[in-house]
TrEMBL record:
GO terms for MF: NAD binding; phosphoglycerate dehydrogenase activity
Any matching Pfam family: 2-Hacid_dh
UniProt record similarity statement: Belongs to the D-isomer specific 2-hydroxyacid dehydrogenase family.
EC top class, as a word: oxidoreductase
CDD domains with a match to the protein in the record: ACT_3PGDH-xct (cd04902), PGDH_4 (cd12173)
Biological role: Catalyzes the reversible oxidation of 3-phospho-D-glycerate to 3-phosphonooxypyruvate, the first step of the phosphorylated L-serine biosynthesis pathway. Also catalyzes the reversible oxidation of 2-hydroxyglutarate to 2-oxoglutarate.
Protein name as catalogued: D-3-phosphoglycerate dehydrogenase
C-alpha cells in the first residue's frame, strides 16, 4: 500500500501507517515531484483543509481508493467526483467535539462578561470598570441547534453553569435529549425561546442561511449568537443589521463564508467576537483527528471497513463482519443475472429477508449493482449507485420477512431488461458459502462460485445424460450438478441445470450442448472462487 500524507500530521498519525509492514508512506515534505506525481500509484491520500482535492487531481491518481480528511469539513474535497471514480471520502466527526464545545462555552462567557472589551481597554491603559458590567449565564436559556456530538458536549458543559437548555434536531431521540438535560423543541420554538443560541449543524440546502432576517426577527431582543459550525449558516448582511440595531446583543463567530476573513462588515462592530476558525485547534484535538483518520484509512485498506464516509453509508467493524458475506453474495448474484440476462438493463429490484431486513443494506445494494454492471465499466461499491443513476437504471429495495421459506437471511434480485425479466434468490450457508436457491421461479440449490453452466431445457428424459456425456467427451470435469423443474403447471414443463465445472468451457462445448434437441439454452457464468 502507498499512503500520501499531503499535509503535516502528528507523529502519532504517521506511526499508525508506519506500523504496517510493507506500506510506503510519503509525508508532505517528501514529495519532490509534487503531489500529482506522488499520487500516480497511491492507494490513499490524507489531507487537512489546505489541499484542494478536485477532479483534476483525482485524474492523476488512477489507483486511489480512499481520501481521508483529518477533520470534519470536506469543502476542499470534490466528493461527487470521488464517488464517480469509486473513491471513498472519509472525515473524522466527533474527534474534536470537546475542543469545539469548550470554545463555544468560552465564547458565551466572553460575550456575557465583555471579556474582549475589558482586555482591550486594559491594554490601552484604561480602567473602565463601570462600562464593562456583564451578565451571568445562570438562569438564562441556551438554544442548541443541532444535537450531534458537539451539540451534546456543549449541553453537558452548559448544565454546570445553571443554564436551561433547549434543543432542536430531528435526528436525536427524546431519550438522549433527556439524558443530557435538554428539552426538545421545534426550530421555531428554539429561535423564539433562547437568550443564547449556538449552531452545531452541518451545511445542507435546508440549513444554508438558516439565520436570516426572518428568523432573527423572531428571536428575543438581546439574543447572543455563537457559530462554531459553518459560516454559510448565517445570512451575514441580516446579522450585521441586527447587531447594529441592537436586536442581537452580540455574536461570536469562528467560521465564515470566505476564509481567511477579509473586508468584512463584522470587523467594524464592537459587539462581535471574531476568531480565525480555531474551534478544533487544540493540540489534543489535532492529535485525535490525525490518529482517527489514520485508523479509518488503515481499516478500509486492510479489511474494507468503511467508517465515517461522506459519500457512502458507514458500518462499524462488527456490522461489516456480519454483512460482509452478504455484500459478497450480492455481487455474485448481480453478476450471475447479468451473465444470464436478456439484454440491456432497465431496472433492478432487491428484496431482503431475515436478518437483512434490519441491517444497513446500502453496501449490499451497491455490490449487487456492481455485479450487474461489472462487464461494462470500472464500477465498485462506492460508485455503483451513481453509475446506475447516470445510466437511467432504476433501483428499488424492499425489506420483507418470509420472502422465501427455508433460510433465515435471503437476498433476491429481480432484473428487468429489454428482453424480459429474470429473478434469482440466494443465501449464505455456514457463514461464508454463497448459494443460489432459485432462478426464474425454479428451485435449484447450487454454489455461486467458479465456472457455472446454466442450462434451460424441456423436462424430458435423457437431457441430463447427454449434457454429462458431451462434457466428458470434451474433458470437462463436473464439480457439482444441481437440478430443478418448473412446478407452476405450465406446459411444456421446463427444467434448469446449474453445472459447476472445474474450468471454463470453450465455445465448442457450448455449441455441442446446443445441439441437444430438448436443450433451450446454455450459458457460461464465471464467478469468483469461494473461500478455501
Amino acid at each position: 500500500m502507498k499512503i500520501v500524507l499531503a499535509e503535516k500530521v502528528s507523529p502519532a498519525t504517521l506511526a499508525v501507517f508506519a506500523a504496517e509492514p510493507g506500506w510506503e508512506v510519503l509525508t508532505h515534505d517528501k514529495l519532490p515531484d509534487g503531489l500529482p506525481a506522488a499520487l500516480a500509484d497511491a492507494d490513499a491520500l490524507v489531507v487537512r483543509s489546505a489541499v484542494q482535492v478536485d477532479d483534476a487531481l483525482m485524474e492523476k491518481a488512477p489507483k486511489l481508493r480512499v481520501i481521508g480528511r483529518a477533520g470534519v469539513g470536506v469543502d476542499n474535497i470534490d466528493a461527487e467526483a470521488a464517488t464517480r471514480r469509486g473513491i471513498v471520502v472519509m472525515n473524522t466527526p466527533g474527534a474534536n467535539a470537546v475542543a469545539v464545545a469548550e470554545l463555544t462555552i468560552g465564547l458565551m462567557l466572553a460575550l456575557a462578561r465583555k471579556v474582549p472589551a475589558a482586555n482591550g481597554t486594559m491594554h490601552a491603559g484604561k480602567w473602565e470598570k463601570k462600562s464593562l458590567q456583564g451578565s451571568e449565564l445562570r438562569g438564562k436559556t441556551l438554544g442548541i441547534l443541532g444535537l450531534g456530538r458537539i451539540g451534546l458536549e456543549v449541553a453537558r458543559r452548559a448544565r454546570g453553569f445553571g443554564l436551561e437548555i433547549i434543543g432542536s434536531d430531528p435526528f436525536v431521540s427524546a431519550a438522549v435529549a433527556r439524558e443530557n438535560g435538554i428539552r426538545l423543541v421545534t426550530i421555531d420554538e428554539l429561535f423564539a425561546g433562547c437568550e443564547y443560541l449556538t449552531l452545531h449543524v452541518g451545511l445542507t440546502p435546508q440549513t444554508a442561511d438558516i439565520i436570516n432576517a426572518k428568523t432573527l426577527a423572531a428571536m428575543k431582543k438581546g439574543v447572543r449568537i455563537i457559530n462554531c459550525a459553518r459560516g454559510e449558516l448565517i445570512d451575514d448582511a441580516a446579522l450585521v443589521e441586527a447587531l447594529k440595531s441592537g436586536h442581537v446583543a452580540g455574536a461570536a463567530l469562528d467560521v465564515f463564508r470566505e476564509e481567511p476573513l477579509k473586508n468584512s462588515a463584522y470587523t467594524g462592530l464592537d459587539n462581535v467576537i471574531l476568531t480565525p476558525h480555531i474551534a478544533g485547534s487544540t493540540g489534543e484535538a489535532q492529535e485525535a483527528v490525525g490518529i482517527q483518520i489514520a485508523r479509518q484509512v488503515r481499516e478500509y485498506l486492510k479489511l474494507g471497513v468503511v467508517q465515517n464516509a461522506v459519500n457512502l453509508p458507514s458500518l462499524s467493524h462488527e456490522e461489516y463482519v456480519q454483512l460482509s458475506p452478504y455484500i459478497d453474495l450480492a455481487g455474485r448474484l448481480g453478476s450471475f443475472l447479468a451473465q444470464t440476462g436478456k439484454g440491456g438493463i432497465e431496472s433492478a429490484q432487491l428484496f431482503y429477508g431475515g436478518l437483512l431486513t434490519d441491517a444497513k443494506t446500502e453496501l449490499v445494494r451497491n455490490s449487487a449493482i456492481a455485479g450487474l454492471l461489472a462487464g461494462s465499466e470500472n464500477v465498485n461499491l462506492i460508485n455503483a449507485a451513481a453509475i446506475a443513476e447516470e445510466r437511467g437504471i432504476r433501483v428499488h429495495e424492499e425489506k420483507q420477512d418470509g420472502h422465501r421459506g427455508g433460510a433465515a437471511n435471503l437476498l433476491a434480485v429481480e432484473l428487468h431488461s429489454a428482453g424480459g425479466a429474470s429473478h434469482a434468490t440466494a443465501t449464505v450457508i455456514h457463514g461464508e458459502q454463497p448459494r443460489l436457491l432459485e432462478f426464474d421461479g425454479i428451485d435449484v440449490e447450487a454454489p455461486l462460485e467458479g465456472n457455472l453452466l446454466v442450462c434451460r431445457n424441456l423436462d424430458v428424459p435423457g437431457v441430463i445424460g447427454k449434457i454429462g456425456t458431451i462434457l466428458g467427451e470434451h474433458g470437462v470435469n463436473i464439480a457439482n450438478f444441481a437440478l430443478g423443474r418448473d412446478r407452476s403447471g405450465v406446459q411444456p414443463v421446463k427444467a434448469l441445470a446449474v453445472v459447476q465445472v472445474d474450468a471454463p468451457v470453450s465455445q465448442d462445448v457450448l455449441q455441442a450442448l446446443t445441439k441437444i434437441e430438448a436443450l433451450l439454452e446454455a450459458k457460461l457464468v464465471t464467478l469468483p472462487e469461494g473461500k478455501s
